Structures are given as structure tokens and as C-alpha cells.
Amino acid sequence: MYVLGIETSCDETGCAIVRGRNVLSNVIVSSLKFHKRYGGIIPEIATRNHTKVVDKVFKESVAKANLHLSKISAISVTYKPGLIGALVVGINFSKALALALDKPLVGVNHLHAHLFASFLNNDIKIPFPFLGLIVSGGHTELFVVKDFDRIKSVGKTRDDAAGEVMDKVARTFDLGYPGGMYIDKIFNHKYRKSFNFKCGRPALDFSFSGIKTALIYKKHELENKNAFSSDVKVKLLSSFEESVVSAIVENTVMSAKKYNLKSIVCGGGVISNSRLRALLKQASSNNNIRLFLPPKRFCSDNAAMVAGLGSYLYNIKKIHSSLNIEAFSN
Ligand code: KG4
Ligand code: ZN
């Protein structure tokens, strides 16, 4: 049973074909280069670019999978959350495909798809129930996952997402966009405690906007005293990253304990972060928790995770959506 997935929730236009959890093709075209000069994603540019490239991405994905379209059993598409115009492009394209091929449509939540990424290209038994951790540009959220159709949010950021705060900080330090990756590269272990920055952890939620302000004030203060150098920059950013990833790991482990869950499954672009991966491994091993980290190529937005989850929902849970499915930003 082959499932074709379409992803257009942000700046990546993706189309993938899977057979169960095996990825046959996974084509991604990003409009990132058009957003870089603005230091963030411009929704209209993202939407226009999806419209421009979605058919090419689809054709390339089908060609790579070397599959006749008649073999496809269902079309899976991200319908929330994301940029509304961007989502509409993918949804309408998928509806057209479903109609033309006379196949069912399966609407997929983008965050749930990120949690499916760890199970692509393997036959590991999915460890239900588990704690899901999503850390991306738009979300920092914890879920109790009893199955992929029984997911409950149990903690999230009350202001900026972790990726968003890294991108904003990186912009202040002129590091380029998206900033998380640059901060990851700059991080120096020996400077991780040079400055004492703290993230808010109200209840089991997150708060990252305070640390962003504290870091920016500190930078200005040091600049005014002529005490800002490239070495100090590394110290500031390493201490900032250490505090953000530590808050994520501490809340994650505390939530797993609170809900008595023995597995943690991670997903989202920030899960590529080397220090976050290392701390998650250390904390889960110290607490006898099984940890699932997707390979880096499946951390950031892609359609393979959408097709994989669509295949699971359609084939295992017998779920599909109506052709009236709408886009939701949240
Ligand atoms: O999941 P994703 O591709 O898109 C959303 O759904 O948001 O995540 C994008 C985010 C950006 O904020 C980017 O800075 C961050 O992931 N990111 C990283 C790394 N690679 C990407 N953050 C920290 N370390 C990285 N290596
Ligand atoms: Zn994402």
C-alpha cells in the first residue's frame, strides 16, 4: 500500500511516497533563500513559492519512487498547524489529486507527523504510550501519545518557541537565518556556563522570551563597556543555548515521570541540535527512559513524515478525511 504525502505548512514544499514506513521518495524544495534577507518567513513569499513549485515537486517525487500513480492508495496532506495560505496550496493540490486518482484524502497534523519521523525507514515497534517532544520554529510542546489518533498536549511554551527564540537571537548577533543551526555550530562546551541565563519553566510549560531579553541586554551592556569580543560572543551564545536546551530536557524528563511514561519520542527542526541531542540521551539513560531521536534529515520539515503518518492512520487506524477538509493555522 503506497501513500503519497504533501507538506506545505511553512517554507518547505514537500512530496513523498512511502510504503508503510519505508520512504521511496522524499523531495523538498525550500523558499528559504527568498526569506533570508528579512530574517524570518514572509507568509506571502512562502505561499507564492508553494504555488510555483508544488507540481514539479510532485512529479519529481513520483519519478524518484518509480511508481505508477494507479498504485497509490491514499493522499496524505498537512492541514494544520501552519501558515494559512501555505497550507491551502498543499490542501487544494492534494484534493485535486484525490479527485483525479479517485483515492481517499488523509489530513495530518504537522506536529503529530514530526513525532512519526522516528519510525520512518525502520520496523521498530512504536512504544505507545509515549511522551512526545516537539521543538521547532513554531512550537515547543509536550504530548502524551496513547496512539496517533489519541494525542493530548500536556505542556507548551507560553511565548516564543525554542527555534523562534534561537532565530531571533541569531539575528541580533548577525549570524544568519535560520539561526538555530548557526548557534549550534558556535556552541562551545567549555563556555556553556560562562553566563547565568535562566529560562522560565512555569508548571511544566516553557517560557523563552525572558532569556532572549536578558541576553540582548547583556550584549548591549558589554558593548557599551567595550567588553564585547568574538570570544565573549561565543560565551554568551553558548550559555544561552545551554539554558534553553536544559529547560527543554528538564521539563521533558519531569513530564515523562509525571505521566509514568517509559519512552520519549522527539521531533522538529531544533531536535537536530547537537547539545540538545546529547543532553536528551544523557537524561533518558540516567532515568531508564527509552529515547527516540529521528535522523537529522527527518527532523526539519519534510513530506516523508506526513506520508508515513498518513499511511499509519489510513492503513492501521482506518481513518481518512472528507474532501471538505480545511486549513487551520493553529
Ligand atoms: O521543524 P522545522 O523545520 O520547522 C517548523 O515546523 O518550525 O524547524 C525550524 C527551526 C528553526 O527555528 C531553526 O532555527 C531550527 O529549527 N533549527 C535548529 C537547528 N537546525 C534547525 N535549531 C537548533 N539547532 C539546530 N541544529
Ligand atoms: Zn515543522
What's the quick description here?
The protein is of the alpha/beta class and 330 residues long.
How would you characterize this protein structure?
It is a single chain. The chain is an alpha/beta fold. The protein contains ten helices and ten strands. The protein has helices at residues 32-35, 43-65, 84-101, 110-116, 162-172, 179-186, 209-224, 230-258, 274-286, 304-316, and strands spanning 2-7, 12-19, 22-30, 72-80, 105-109, 130-135, 140-147, 150-156, 263-267, 290-292. A five-stranded mixed sheet has the order 3-2-1-4-5, with helices on both faces. It has a five-stranded mixed sheet with strand order 8-7-6-9-10, with helices on both faces. Strand 6 and strand 7 (140-147) form a beta hairpin. The longest helix is centred in the last third of the chain and has 29 residues, at 230-258. 5'-O-[(R)-(carboxyoxy)(hydroxy)phosphoryl]adenosine (KG4) binds next to helix 5 and helix 6. Zinc ion binds at residues 110, 114, 136, 268, 301.
Keywords summarizing the entry:
330 residues, alpha/beta, 5-stranded mixed sheet, single chain, globular, binds zinc ion, binds 5'-O-[(R)-(carboxyoxy)(hydroxy)phosphoryl]adenosine, 10 helices
Mean pLDDT: 96
How many beta-strand runs? 10
Radius of gyration, taken over Cα atoms and rounded to an integer in Å? 20 Å
Identify the overall geometry. globular
> How are the strands of the largest sheet arranged?
3-2-1-4-5
Poorly predicted residue ranges:
none
Helix content: 40-55%
The N- and C-terminal alpha carbons lie at a distance of 31 Å
State the order of secondary-structure elements, H for helix, E for strand. Answer: EEEHHEHEHEEEHHHHEHEH
Q: What percentage of amino acids are in beta strands?
A: 15-25%
Class inferred from helices and paired strands: alpha/beta
